[in-house]
Amino acid sequence: MAKVKYAIIGFGGIAENRIAKEGYACDKSRFAPLQYAELTGAFDLNPARKSAAEALGLKWYDSVDALIADPEIDAVYVATNNATHAEMTIRALEAGKHVIVEKPIATSIADAKKMIAVAKKKKLSLSVDHMMVNNAFNKMAKKSIADGKLGTVNDCCFHMEFAFGYDPAEAATWRCSKIEEMGGPIGDVASHCFYVAEYIFGSPIVEIAAVYLPKIMEIKAEDGAYIKFTLANGLKGSAKVAFSELRGGLVGTLSNLGFEIYGNEGVLRSYGTMFQLSGHADEPYKMRLELETAKGVKSLKPRVYPNIYQTLIEEHAKSVLSGRRLTGENGLRNLELCAAAHKSAKSGGKVVKL
Predict the structure, then answer these.
(1) What are the backbone dihedrals phi and psi of residue 141, each rounded to the nearest 5 degrees, phi first?
(2) Is residue 86 a contact partner of residue 111, using CB atoms and an 8 Å limit?
């Protein structure tokens, strides 16, 4: 079977270690080749990244133009800085390449709409890296709720709270200093909470109310936010996101990246599932999902642990091969939710309807 051939635009550390080595299985010591996709090339503005790409057997391109002009490349993965996601994606789409773009799809709603329009016009598949929906524990949580293990669900809370920005070098990064590039806890991590909540409950968020946390950090972005949301199915929940929480160390930090889902017959609690982990044996933290009922606490364990990045890439590749294109509209929706959270917080917590 012919595979979709990809090249990466933007070959930084995450692109190398998460997308290339894991997602495209370039780390052959850990992963078998993908069934539908193959990574063959890369480009980065920093020429020092060439050796890292070539070490994985990838062709190095000297420019974006050279990469997207290569007729051997069917699709590109845009992993540049947030501010250039729209530009790189549109250039690739205009050249006839299908695209996967890192979250966020863009840094403005207008740009995201333009990207979606170009993909539609060119009849190309556009996907955004909302990889956490592929986490085996998050999938199990969704199924457990659908199977009625919690009874009637009436509340939930998603957590992404950690320390980032106390160090001056961290404070200078886009995550802490450039709200316009989706920096700050809302743009950077509440965005994950939003799409995972919508996935688990199978319903879109229709209302958001938010307040910023007390300002104790010397960063330009907000320190954090407490966000209340309502889904179209009537369920109300919350997201707690912050760069100001120390959380002890690695174990405390990673275990906090999860959620609680409350029903009248039980509670689901996840630990570490709101992160970049897939559940592989060599990862630095062992994720878990627990169901607590009147009978006690039971650990729920998936039977298989697919790589969250590989699943995303294979789904995109299958859409290319089948002609059933992905639209990228989930990325636009995610931007709108982040914008609504900021709008509410700036108004003192007034409800914003979507």
Answers:
(1) -60, -45
(2) yes
